[in-house]
Design a protein that fits this description.
Radius of gyration: 18 Å
Largest sheet: 5 strands, mixed
Number of helices: 5
Oligomer: single chain
Strand order of the largest sheet: 5-4-6-1-7
Shape: globular
Length: 133
């Protein structure tokens, strides 16, 4: 009985640790001068939408939140996403979004790069929040 109780506690503990990784909010952010709607986000990160008016869109990925973003927003697996970008590179000469290691790097890049769009796990000041997922 003691072993079952310990197993039960271990499972509960592991679920408690795992929950924040997939339950985090995602904020899609853009440079303050950028005008995009939430309907455009999927197309931006798949290379289908490259301009907002006359502004060149520069998507930036967040390595720490990429799997969650692809699942929630783009609705594609990481392997299919990679394959799609490989095809676009050869077929259309497009470059996959720049990848930053985490929220701080994405926020810095978006704030300092006109036309940039990225995603983070906490709402930052000084940028435009396009949508929260």
């Amino acid at each position: 009985m003691h072993k079952i109780y310990r197993l039960y506690l271990t499972i509960i503990f592991c679920l408690g640790i795992a929950t924040p990784a997939w339950a985090e909010d995602l904020f899609v952010i853009s440079h303050p001068n950028m005008v995009l709607t939430s309907d455009n986000i999927r197309d931006v990160f798949l290379g289908e939408k490259q301009f907002a008016g006359s502004t060149k869109i520069i998507p930036v990925a967040n390595n720490a939140a990429q799997a969650d973003f692809l699942s929630k927003v783009v609705k594609i697996s990481p392997s299919r996403y990679s394959t799609a970008w490989t095809k676009k590179a050869f077929r259309d000469g497009l470059t996959q979004p720049v990848v930053k290691s985490g929220d701080a790097e994405v926020i810095h890049f978006v704030k300092s790069t006109p036309g940039s769009v990225g995603y983070v796990t906490s709402q930052p000041p000084g940028v435009t929040v396009i949508n929260k997922y």
